[in-house]
Automatic annotation (TrEMBL):
UniProt-recorded name of the protein: Oxidoreductase
Translocase among keywords: no
Keyword annotations: Oxidoreductase
SMART domains tied to this protein: PKS_KR
Keyword Oxidoreductase among record annotations: yes
Family under the similarity heading: Belongs to the short-chain dehydrogenases/reductases (SDR) family.
Ketoreductase domain residues: 8-195
One MF annotation (Gene Ontology) recorded for this entry: oxidoreductase activity, acting on the CH-OH group of donors, NAD or NADP as acceptor
Length: 252
């Protein structure tokens, strides 16, 4: 029978782990065909197999989203193999916290390359799909993963927070332009979610800070965030849930 996302074509970046993986799986369960973008080929292939085995449709596209041409090529492949995308979960991101005076400039650059440039590459490749989908009269969603770090002032989070503030404000601006065309634009701002995100931190003290926070309270699971994204895409077309904060109940 028809489920809330039957006939939708979803693109999920960062689909090889954490929030992206769980969201791709949930969107597929609810009937969407899903294109899976990230770098780790094996993870994507496993996820695609799992979705297919459950009766869904998935297309694994190993892509580094900081590579503009590779993302543009992926968009063409999505169109050829699944059809025009009408739900884009712009989610790939990296969090490399450290004190500013450590001058971990490579970490600063990696966050800017992925969380800003990568996010823009996805927008450039898929906004035309979304506008077309809306013009054809169907739902169209751009959902960007921001963070509560976009608005909170957290020590050692400076560059990461800056990139997420960029994403949250970008979302507001895009909504003004695209909402008029019936494309919904949303940002999800999660609190602590138990994923691989802290594993990449290169500063040992910052890494211990994250691990401590994760032990202290019952965090969100990736599935909790996935359910939120699915809800945003499932409400009637004239309803745009724009900025959604999802916190673990016990997180301050
Ligand atoms: P993960 O580290 O599990 O997921 C990050 C994803 O991004 C992976 O699938 C990774 O895949 C992908 N990725 C990294 N670099 C690239 C790249 N260059 N090109 C394509 N994909 C890439 O962490 P989360 O699931 O937690 O993170 C998802 C999003 O959620 C991020 O934007 C993060 O900032 C945000 N967030 C997370 C919170 C948390 O507490 N976990 C809280 C608030 C926001 P691969 O390495 O295979 O490329």
């Amino acid at each position: 029978g028809a489920t809330p996302l039957t006939g939708r074509v979803a693109v999920v970046t960062g689909a090889s782990s954490g929030i992206g993986e769980a969201t791709a799986e949930r969107l597929a369960e609810l009937g969407a065909s899903v294109a899976l973008l990230a770098r780790r080929k094996d993870n994507l292939a496993e996820l695609a197999d799992r979705i297919t085995a459950a009766g869904g449709t998935a297309l694994a596209l190993p892509v580094d989203v900081t590579d503009r041409q590779a993302v543009a090529d992926a968009a063409r492949e999505v169109r050829d193999r699944l059809g025009r995308a009408d739900l884009v979960f712009n989610n790939a991101g990296v969090q490399l916290i450290s004190p500013i005076e450590d001058l971990r400039v490579d970490d600063w650059q990696r966050q800017i390359d992925l969380n800003v440039t990568g996010v823009m590459n996805v927008i450039a490749a898929f906004v035309p799909h979304l506008v077309e989908a809306a013009e054809a009269g169907g739902p169209a969603d751009l959902v960007n993963t921001s963070s509560i770090a976009a608005t909170r002032v957290l020590e050692k989070f400076s560059v990461y927070s800056g990139t997420k503030a960029y994403i949250s404000h970008l979302t507001r601006l895009l909504r003004v332009e695209l909402g008029r065309k019936m494309v919904r634009v949303s940002s999800i701002e999660p609190g602590m979610v138990d994923t691989e995100l802290p594993d990449h931190v290169t500063d040992p003290d910052a890494s211990e800070l994250m691990a401590g926070l994760l032990r202290e309270i019952e965090c969100l699971s990736s599935a909790d965030v996935a359910e939120t994204v699915a809800f945003v895409a499932s409400v009637p077309r004239h309803v745009n849930l724009t900025e959604i904060t999802v916190l673990p109940t016990a997180q301050a």
